[in-house]
Amino acid sequence: xxxxxxxxxxxxxxxxxxxxxxxxxxxxxxxxxxxxxxxxxxxxxxxxxxxxxxxxxxxxxxxxxxxxxxxxxxxxxxxxxxxxxxxxxxxxxxxxxxxxxxxxxxxxxxxxxxxxxxxxxxxxxxxxxxxxxxxxxxxxxxxxxxxxxxxxxxxxxxxxxxxxxxxxxxxxxxxxxxxxxxxxxxxxxxxxxxxxxxxxxxxxxxxxxxxxxxxxxxxxxxxxxxxxxxxxxxxxxxxxxxxxxxxxxxxxxxxx
Length: 256
Ligand code: NDP
Fold this sequence. Notes:
Blueprint: E1 9-13, H1 18-29, E2 33-38, H2 41-55, E3 59-63, H3 69-83, E4 88-91, H4 106-131, E5 137-142, H5 155-175, E6 180-185, H6 193-202, H7 208-219, H8 221-225
Parallel strand pairs: 1-2, 1-4, 2-3, 4-5, 5-6
This protein binds NADPH dihydro-nicotinamide-adenine-dinucleotide phosphate.
Family: Belongs to the short-chain dehydrogenases/reductases (SDR) family.
GO molecular function: 3-oxoacyl-[acyl-carrier-protein] reductase (NADPH) activity
Protein name: 3-oxoacyl-[acyl-carrier protein] reductase
């Protein structure tokens, strides 16, 4: 099926691994060029080179922290420098959290706000003016099922993802006159390296695969019934083995 993406330029934050990498690969498979952003520049570079090799499109990596204004500026500049703009922006970079409302400090709330909300604001401010003269485009915000249904142990994640959902709706009304669509995806359980890391932490490098399977069996009965179980799973089993709250969005605790 031709999705009409040939030679479009897609900027994907968090495109070096997990869901973002899958998204970037899928764009490239459709003939789009991709600019992937992540803090770990060498992992992003490896991912970009692999995409270019496999799909024959241009794939460029930008090392940057999109939770900062400087990081967003670097990505916007890269889109201008490498591609003369872009047609698609996928705000995917994000991570789970682990805290209580009563104990989490303001700094942690602010850090997740910067990562899950302000990155989308800042990148839109820089990239929408580049999309509009190309005839418009699309922005896709990767929120979470937690944007509408909270998990008890990650209030900051729930709230900032819900804010991203509302930001998307609000952006969509502002940007549609420029022919730019804005949508949100609220994924459920996707097995990514973040989850594997979390499972290893929770089991202290014990039987982490069994842990993940148990989560899938408990919370994604479809996967268990069909003998799958690694494709979608739920995290709330962490209630039984709760990791220590972390200081900021460098947490390795996967969110849903
Ligand atoms: P991963 O941890 O596997 O990947 C996260 C990606 O984001 C990496 O490329 C990481 O690279 C990048 N990243 C993280 N922080 C920053 C930052 N500050 N600046 C730039 N890049 C950053 O996550 P997933 O693929 O599991 O999740 C991707 C998104 O999907 C997240 O927003 C998550 O909340 C959401 N989601 C995931 C679900 C799941 O079950 N996996 C379910 C629902 C939503 P680096 O570390 O090098 O910066």
